[in-house]
Amino acid sequence: MVADLSQLVKAYDVRGVVPDQWDESLAELFGAAFVQVTEADAIVVGHDMRPTSPALSGAFARGAAARGADVTLIGLCSTDQLYYASGALDLPGAMFTASHNPAQYNGIKMCRGGAAPVGQDTGLREIRTLVEQWSEGAPQPPAPATPGTITERDTLTDYAAHLLGLVDLKAIRPLKVVVDAGNGMGGHTVPTVFAGLPLDLVPLYFELDGTFPNHEANPLDPKNIVDLQARVVAEGADLGLAFDGDADRCFVVDERGEGVSPSAITALVAARELARNGGEGIVIHNLITSWSVPEVVRENGGTAVRTRVGHSFIKTEMAKHGAIFGGEHSAHYYFRDFWNADTGMLAALHVLAALGGRTTPLSELVAQYDRYAGSGEINSTVTDQSASVAEVKAAYATRDDATFDELDGLTVTTPDWWFNLRASNTEPLLRLNVEARDRRTMETVRDEVLALIRH
């Protein structure tokens, strides 16, 4: 097919509707282009539980093998399991998933050896160009005399062993944990990773089903964790965990059924990783995580580095600074000892270890990391993003106590509150995050800014 790749190739990955926007013939071209750009002689390929994933990943493998690369198929896996395989085998990798998107979507997340990201500036633009040319009939370079091989390998037990080697769970008390896999890949990885731990596991929606019959596999949307919250309370569980569709993000619910902010989890894990590294190290956080995160990092002997939102920025900063850990407000958690890649499962193991090492409930444990009142992300549809941001900036420019920065959108900070206003890259939206020392102040600032945006 001749595809509109401007709609298909995003900033960090490939994502679109199958078969309307892309199909197996295009997946095969992506496999060939991936090998051409990375100059790989061997790659690893995995896929999620979507109905179209096996055929698309198989076509990608054929395209890669035709260009001379040996392909290791690891089959059903989470995205962080693919990153594990890329890191442990030191091979470029491709993961077939559309994360939490609806069932008709599929996509490819690609990385170089050691799970190094492939984005627009690190190879994805070149891959897109080749696929466009070839789909329009331009000839591929001559095929090598010997095509690559395609073999299968299971990495699930090795992935679990690697994660369990990074967190000491031997002495934790027994815990009752409800896990909502959302019919996604958590249903595949959790039973193996949690096997042998002193956990009473209550599984919710562990059946692999890429049509998502129960709810969207996006735990950041409050409506998608309602079942988990109710079940935690009904079971008298110690905590709940919710994974997204490809199980690289993890959201935590406390024993009362209340969601725990990803900023609090970032701070908790940062404190533990700093302790594991002798009380020193650099921690990366994006600019809309809570004030609590850099505070906790400093209190535990570390250095906090603030960066833009988005996994390619976090991973770049992780590598640049030799950081031990990174966290985002979106429940992505990055670890030096996991090739700087994100793994919600490792963050979940840290939460289990922290909770299992004491007798207090999770709500008390995380209270020390959740110090301020946050609005969460609020989206507003606007016709002119830059004009709206300029109007907000002008409204606050007269304040003597305010500082401004434009690292990523507009951030306005005073001693008692801050807000960030960012334009969406893909939709006519402005995203607002507000945090303050108390809830009333947060609500006042939130409502002031929204009135300026939505008038």
UniProtKB/TrEMBL annotation:
**Alphabetical list of Pfam families matching this protein:** PGM_PMM_I, PGM_PMM_II, PGM_PMM_III, PGM_PMM_IV
Domain (Alpha-D-phosphohexomutase alpha/beta/alpha): give its ranges: 7-135, 158-257, 267-372
| Alphabetized UniProt keyword annotations | Isomerase, Magnesium, Metal-binding, Phosphoprotein
* Positions of the Alpha-D-phosphohexomutase C-terminal domain: 377-451
Identify which cofactors the protein needs according to its UniProt entry.
Answer: Mg(2+)
**In its keyword annotation, does this UniProt entry include Magnesium?**
yes
The record's family statement is: Belongs to the phosphohexose mutase family.
**Which NCBIfam families does this UniProt record tie to the protein?**
PRK09542.1
The protein in question is named Phosphomannomutase/phosphoglucomutase
